[in-house]
Design goal:
Strand content: 15-25%
Helix content: 40-55%
Order of helices and strands: EHEHEHEHEHEHEHEHEHEHEHEHEHHH
CATH class of the largest domain: Alpha Beta
Structural class: alpha/beta
Radius of gyration: 21 Å
Strand order of the largest sheet: 3-2-1-4-5-6-7
CATH architecture of the largest domain: 3-Layer(aba) Sandwich
Low-confidence stretches: none
CATH topology of the largest domain: Rossmann fold
Largest sheet: 7 strands, parallel
CATH superfamily of the largest domain: Glycogen Phosphorylase B
Number of domains: 2
Mean pLDDT: 93
Number of strands: 13
Length: 380
Amino acid sequence: MKIARVATVPFFLYNHLRGQIAATVGAGHEVVLVSSGGREVPWLKEMPGIRFVQIEIPRKISPRQDLKALWQLYWLFRRERFDIVHSGTPKAGMLCAIAGYLARVPVRLHTFTGQAWVELHGIVRALAKAGDRLTARLDTRCYADALSQREFIVEQAVAAKEKINVVGAGSLAGVDLARFSPGGRERMNEALLRELNIPAGHKIVTFIGRITRDKGIYELIESFRALVGKGVPCSLLLVGPEESAPGERISHALAGLPNVHVFGYQPDPERWLAITDVFCLPSYREGFGNVVVEAAAMGVPTVGTDIVGLRDTIVAGETGLLVPPKDVHALTVALTDLLGDDEKRRRMGQNARIRAVDLFDSRKVNAGVLDEYQTLWSLP
């Protein structure tokens, strides 16, 4: 089969789908990757067996640029005669659904990885939600990367129940169990602890993701400030690109707060998870939260928010703790609990690892996606 994987930004393709793309090529399929330009483009072009086509797809509403991207996608699909077009990220999903429908691509797929409109209001929310509805209506099949997200999408009348599936137990592409393993923690942690000069006896709380308000980053900072105020011996790692709103800077929120280490984008999350005692993702919205499963595979429990998506990655009381979103007090109580109880942390970490192996092995998830391709392509 000839398959196009399309995303708004190359970051999504490289960081989330690299293993799945390699598995697709390994199964004998021809793969073309499509996205806007970005730092990851040279890395994508180096992947064996793929071609890369750059089309600038704006993340925000931009009528002129949207129409240009739609036109370019339409002609790409007409020229290449793909058997399957599979999109991820909201804007790419909507434009691919329209272009693929008009170009008569036989199988048009989209994977929802969270709904950006959940935290929006007014006309902007209505437009974003309408875009997801159009995607679901025009595509052959849609997927959610979490069971709870599928329920939410159906409940919100974005997609009909029979039109949206989940591959296996969920996740976009699973977790590479060889890369994320407890053994990796033992190899990597001592050198990094020395490099960061973490005080002896400190427990480490880590956040990995976009450093932005809707990831709950400000609640995490205030919670950490409360931990420091109570004398809890801990350090905080913030790993990821900062995407603050105009006038907001993470440095302002961190002013005067000790033992905080801030890093930009890092290509090796396993290195930071290797020294982590508790992973924390206090997000307002998520599709699935794959980094939680990566932490789990390394035997690290998570404190996360009780929202769609994270309910699928964290089993409350077994592999981590769930707290209400935007609740600094509840987050502080949960972090204090896990940081202060070595046995509970060890037990939850072990449970998390077992669950990651059983449900989210990337080999199982990727095989499930390839089975979907074959099934849909074989339909009359």
